Amino acid sequence: MNGPPPASRPPGPALSRRGVLLGALAGAGAATLTGCATPLGAGLLKTESAPDAVEYWNLFGGGDGVRMQQIQDAFRKANPGTPLKAITLAWGDPYYTKLSLATVGEEPPDVAVSHLTRMKTLVDAGLLQELRPEDLARHGMAAENFNQRAWQAGLVDGRTYAIPLDTHPFVLFYNTDICQQAGLLDPNGQLKPITGEAAFVDALARAKRVTGRYGATHGINADPASPWRFFQTLYSQLEGEILADNGTRIVLDDAKAARVLDYLRALTVEQGLIPSGADYPGAIAMFATGQAGFHLNGEWEISTFQTAKMPFGMTLVPNIFGGPHAVQADSHTLILPARPDLDQARLDRALHFVRSVLDQSLTWAEGGHVPTWLPFAESEAYRRLSPQSSYAAAADTAVYDPPGWYSGSGSNFENVIGSAVGAVEGGQLTARAAIAQIRSQLSVLARTPSPV
Amino acid sequence: MATTIPAADRTRTGPGSAPPGGADHRTRQGRPALLFLTPFLALYLLFIIGPALYGLVMSFFHTSMVRPGLGEFAGLDNYAEALGSSDFWWAIWHTVWFTILTTPPLVVLALVFALLAERVRRGRWFFRLAFFLPYVLPSAVVALIWMWIYTPELGLLSRTVDTLGGTAPNWLGDPAWAMVSLAVTTVWWTLGFNFVLYLAGLQDVPRDLYEASAIDGAGPWQQIRRITLPLLTRTTTLVVVLQVIASLKVFDQMYIMTSGGPNFSTRSALQYVFDVGFTDYRTGYAAAASTLFFLLVLAASAVWLVLTRRPESEV
């Protein structure tokens, strides 16, 4: 500021400039106050824009997001009297923190999506509305209408807090052209069953000979979730458990974990059947461009490979260790966050919307998820849906995260184990070192009193 | 911008010469200044000071993300837990290591490029723009570009190294390389800011000093050492302080490019706070960890200020 000092300036213009500024401020204030009709105004004054609306939060992007939009549009068309306000937030922490805080702040959505493995923490925190059988019955929903594995896994002390929409297992994608050349398909063009450690190695090795690069891919770099899912699948096939007593006790079986980790190390570091260095998108790209015959991932990536117009099939992750078949999975559930002003009409509007989503299970199942709503899951329409129905059995052998305040989809529990498993697959840790690391990091979490 | 030449001015008038005007002048300006500052101060109190104080209070409680209120009083439990946690100390070390890797190149290269860009006779605008341009990109975009470059086997860098006959490491997947790769990305991205500060500093070096020294027979290297660098001391102090603080604040690059991996080897202090606060819902403990980290940044800044203030007062 190099102008003359204010005292030497005639007072007139200075005052008028101040006046203009003050006037502008007052104007802006008035505009804010009259803005009740806007969401901002409604939020500030705690009035609702439409009292008979259903507010719905979800975490779906990509192909899932598109399909959920279709489901919402169909609801709007069928229920013109019930405005639907749908909000999509990014999966993981951004979603669950906002959902928790909105509920704590007594401004929750009427209906929200939650992973089954995250829902129990929300119940423990007292953030969810219990769904009583008589209320569900008014909308034609009862326990026997749902896949029992998902339904039972979602109960807390025998009470229902969540309606499972699907089961989303870890599955095996295969490139039908490559597998054909490798002699891995049956006459119907389906993958021949693979059972046992040696058979899986052999299948990957044969695919590798065809591609010249790799047998299979899955995300390892910057992607602890995929190694976690693969580990949990195989470890559960050995009937291994990780946590007990609601997460306060670690019951990791070192021998079983070492067997799985040694096997994963053989597939990656020792035999080079799976690349150690691929990240999540890289693993997808390698499979989509024919550099690998197999891809291990959640079934939700079906849309990616359909868009890539590549020849592929999907099936259960093989039973490698010979125990009962088991596969890592989670479920999307619909929950009603607790709210003090819940009345019968609001509850019924919310449950009506939940039922409407279940009725559109076909749209949802096209995205790869195994439906839990039995009227559709047992229908001919679903059986004809290919390749989606070819791994439907995964819903019955699904293994969910063990309960604990620090476990669940995208949790630090999965991150701790997935990081150590990824380090084994990347060749940086031995099985023994990885188990020691998992133990020490989990024991910190197990010792910590639950924050909920 | 300032029209005076602070460094040169100081050498000419000498230390201790008071600015024109005086105490009387200052008080007369005080009230209108406060009035103009009010909107900023209100927002600053509401969104910076307020939450910071609330966080400090929270760090003494077992506050939970999913429970209303502060929760049970914890005393110093949260601090004791953080100080005794190896994960916390590793995260602090990762942040410090990142700062050590990024600060020297970001200061030295910025100076070198500013000197070079200043010497260019034609198309000077192009070089200024070229060095500054990456800085305007958002962190997510930078992360995406460099993740492609670092992609094993298919990526630009790995391909190039392989073509030249070497074996490319797994840039982001090998714990030995991941932090270095993140540092290289960061240098490319944020160099432009320091570059501009140095360019501005160079504009303040009076031309006549160069002319006089040239007449006395000084070469370009001597001019840089004896004239440019000493007169840029204040700029360098500023650049280093800003850079250390910016590097200690690192979060985005790791969060997007490595998720703190492989196997937690690039988890920064802020990501640790994020993990325990948001993923584990333990906001009280996260507040304690972040307070400890704040003290570290404060200590680093204080040490630097003490170290650099002394030589300056001797000028």
UniProtKB/TrEMBL annotation, chain A:
Transmembrane segments: none
Stored Pfam families: SBP_bac_8
Domain of life (superkingdom): Bacteria
InterPro entries (alphabetical): Bact_solute-bd_prot1, SBP, TAT_signal
Name of the molecule in the record: Sugar ABC transporter substrate-binding protein
The organism of origin for this protein: Plantactinospora endophytica
From TrEMBL, chain B:
Residues annotated as transmembrane: 34-57, 96-117, 129-149, 176-200, 231-251, 285-307
Localization in the cell: Cell membrane
Record flagged with keyword Cell membrane: yes
Pfam families: BPD_transp_1
Keywords: Cell membrane, Membrane, Transmembrane, Transmembrane helix, Transport
Stretches assigned to the ABC transmembrane type-1 domain: 92-304
Domain of life according to the entry: Bacteria
Region of interest (Disordered), ranges: 1-26
Bilayer topology term: Multi-pass membrane protein
SUPFAM superfamilies assigned to the protein according to its UniProt record, in alphabetical order: MetI-like
CDD domains per record: TM_PBP2
Family statement: Belongs to the binding-protein-dependent transport system permease family.
Name this protein carries in UniProt: Sugar ABC transporter permease
Species, as recorded: Plantactinospora endophytica
